[in-house]
Amino acid sequence: MGETRRLDTLLRQFLQSVRPGHLNRETVRLNDVVEHVLTVLEPEMAPRGISIQLSLSRDLPELEADGGQLFQALYNLIRNAYQSIPGSEGGVYIQTDYNDSDVRIIIGDNGTGISHEVMGNMYEPFRTTRKKGHGLGLLIVRHIIKEHGGTLSIASKEGIGTKISITIPRADRVVRLLQG
After folding, report:
1. Does residue 62 form part of some domain?
2. Strand order, beta sheet including 51-56
3. Who has the most CB within 10 Å: 65, 90, 98, 124?
4. pLDDT (tens digit, 0 to 9) for every residue of the chain, 180 residues total?
C-alpha cells in the first residue's frame, strides 16, 4: 500500500508539472510566503545549524498569484538550497526586491553547486542527484513560475554554490511610454 501511494503521488506530481494548471489567483504578499516556508522548514533545518540570511524588501508590492503554488515552488527551492550544504558550515540567503514591472526573489546558497552536466538536463523528469529524490522538483517549480508569467534563472558553480532568481509580474505593473 505504501508503494502504491508513493507511485500515485509521483504520477500526480508529474502530471501537474507537464499540463496547464488552474491558478487560484488572490492577493499574495511574497514576503509572507517566504516566512511561512521558513517556518515549515525550520524543524528540518534547525538541527543542521545552517544560517538563513533574509533581506526582504519592506515595501514589496503585492502579487495576484496562487499562494499555494508559490509556497510549493519556494519550499522546493529553499529545501534544495539548504540540502546542498554539506554539514553545518554554510548558509542560505533569501532576498526580495522589485522594479516597475516585476517582483523578484533570489535564493542563494554556498553549498556544493551544480555541475555543467547536471545543469544541462536538470529539467528532465526523473533526473535527480539525491538518493531519495524523484527528479520532479525543479520541473514543477519551473512550471509554476511560467504559469504566473514569470521567469526562473539558475547560476551555479561547483564547490561555490547556487543562485536562483525568480521574477513575477507585479499586479500593479507600471506601463511606460517611451518618447520617440
Report:
1. yes
2. 51-56, 91-98, 102-109, 161-169, 151-157
3. 65
4. 777 776 666 666 655 555 556 778 899 999 999 999 999 999 888 888 888 999 999 999 999 999 989 998 999 999 988 888 887 778 899 999 999 889 999 999 998 877 766 665 565 655 555 555 555 568 888 888 999 999 999 898 988 899 999 999 987 766 666 666
Tell me if 174 is assigned to some domain: no
Position 75, amino acid: Y
Q: What's the grid cell of residue 163?
A: 543562485
- Residue 177 within a domain: no
Assign residue 101 the CATH number of its domain: 3.30.565.10
Please give the tally of structural domains in the chain: 1
Indicate whether this model's pTM tops 0.90: no
* Domain range for 116: 2-169
Helices within 46-174 (DSSP H only): 67-83, 116-120, 137-147
The answer to whether 94 touches 52, Cβ cutoff 8 Å, is yes
φ/ψ of 138, rounded to 5, equals -70, -30
89 by DSSP, 3-state: which?
coil
In a domain, 176, yes or no: no
